[in-house]
């Protein structure tokens, strides 16, 4: 089933211990849709400026991603510049230029309206809510957010959470959102705000899903579940940018490819999320996901299984 | 097969967000041997003072632990006071009184000499090496260390590592010992110093084992393996003291209980390590391990399996 994703399509200048890249294609919706495109049809809603040309468009086309919802307007695309020189787990932001993104008014092409899966990438919760409301038929809605929205736009964010099935955030964001330093308690508090499923991303340590029978197609008696997917210990992390969005793309893309969501498909989705995140960081920007094959994905899935399974 | 462990038997005064305990029984050898005692026979080498009485002795006796190697001398036992008020992952030390431990000269009872498994808990590497040399028949030798020895007693520690099969340390210690910030590269560098197996403990995120065919009874062509055991997301961490030693006890105790070390037993050992660590933190000091049953251990093993396995 098709996923519609709304979020940023941007240019990133990135410096890491492995080197530097100027203005490579980036943005949460870009990383998400590339990762998800290996599993299902993906449709993007975003806004870009005149600097978004055929070269960038071709990256989406090569993966069969529907870009009719990427609006092109006068001006420059969203631009981010950051480095990970001291700590590969945390970006240091040097510049954020919203540019055309500052006045982003998501417009949903008619051809997108039958999307049963909707992903609200990390943008202003006011926009997330608007898109969610404009797509009332979406059967499963997942989303991301960040510390900035949690701290300074809490009321708007709480409205978004009410309409969300699955929230994907990191440890710090979970604890901040809940105002609780214990992950289990914090997870429960966040789930009480709306999402029946919470995926907490731990960076190099993988991710934990907190879910319940409400997470599945067949809803039995309410029961809490926890599932932990590993991350692959990597010899080289070239560029962590987009790892979380790639995780979300693999996770949600796999779910959307399944006819039914069961505990088993859910667990596999967590693994595919980790798999896509592990590829994303192997090269700068979108380079690795652009070259990736489904065979490599399946091989790494088996590697993740061996990494964690007793037999 | 029996394990001999050498390390500290001590008194700890501990403060955590859950409360405070004065002078509870602690020390690496204590936590290790309690955890390992659920799997195999354990023999302790340590030194204590006159404050170590029948009450403390009874804790070991109740678990069938051989204490003939715990020397009692005039003076007070090793004492540590610490708190975890701001961060449950890192202790703040308020006082360390070595007392009788300052002049510790490990003496190995004859009855211990046939131990095929030897665990060198975190003590002065000079003493670790002495015990290792005094037990040349030990078939599998594992050990722990800490940042203090890595930084200021490197030469002595390197001698210990040469005689070690398995080293269990945390992320920071691994990177510090290797002088490399990438975990995979650091692990390889540490294994080049001696141990064919390295278990890196990640606290609340579990542990990663780096091992090779040399880790097993049947040594095939050299092949690198990585295995990740999770930690249980816990609703309440009452006291993290001894979690790492309990992990080591579960891990090494299970290995010692097996007739052969295969990739499968090795993976199960990692799980039992995580299981014992998860129990240890549920109460202050040794309280939880004292009350534990084998049935609870097996139940939690199944829980860990569900937490990580696809089906």
Task: Explain how this protein is built.
The structure is a homodimer of 311-residue chains. Chain A is α/β, with parallel strands linked by helices. The first copy, chain A, has one domain (3-308): UDP-N-acetylmuramoyl-L-alanine:D-glutamate ligase, CATH 3.40.1190. The first copy, chain A, is 36% helix and 24% strand. Chain A contains eleven helices and 13 strands. Chain A has helices at residues 28-36, 54-62, 125-134, 147-152, 154-162, 171-178, 183-191, 243-256, 263-280, 287-291, 294-308, and strands at 3-6, 10-16, 19-26, 42-48, 66-72, 78-83, 92-97, 117-120, 140-143, 166-170, 197-201, 207-212, 224-229. In chain A, the strands form two sheets. Chain A has a nine-stranded mixed β-sheet with strand order 5-4-1-8-9-10-11-12-13, sandwiched between helices. In chain A, strand 8, helix 3 and strand 9 form a beta-alpha-beta unit. In chain A, helix 3 (125-134) packs parallel to helix 5 (154-162) and helix 9 packs across helix 11. The first copy, chain A, is globular and about 50 Å long. The interface between A and B is medium-sized, with 29 and 29 residues.
Write the layout of secondary structure elements.
The structure is a homodimer of 311-residue chains.
Chain A: E1 3-6, E2 10-16, E3 19-26, H1 28-36, E4 42-48, H2 54-62, E5 66-72, E6 78-83, E7 92-97, E8 117-120, H3 125-134, E9 140-143, H4 147-152, H5 154-162, E10 166-170, H6 171-178, H7 183-191, E11 197-201, E12 207-212, E13 224-229, H8 243-256, H9 263-280, H10 287-291, H11 294-308
Parallel strand pairs in A: 1-4, 1-8, 2-6, 4-5, 8-9, 9-10, 10-11
Antiparallel strand pairs in A: 2-3, 6-7, 11-12, 12-13
Helix pairs in contact in A: 1-8, 3-5, 6-7, 8-9, 9-11
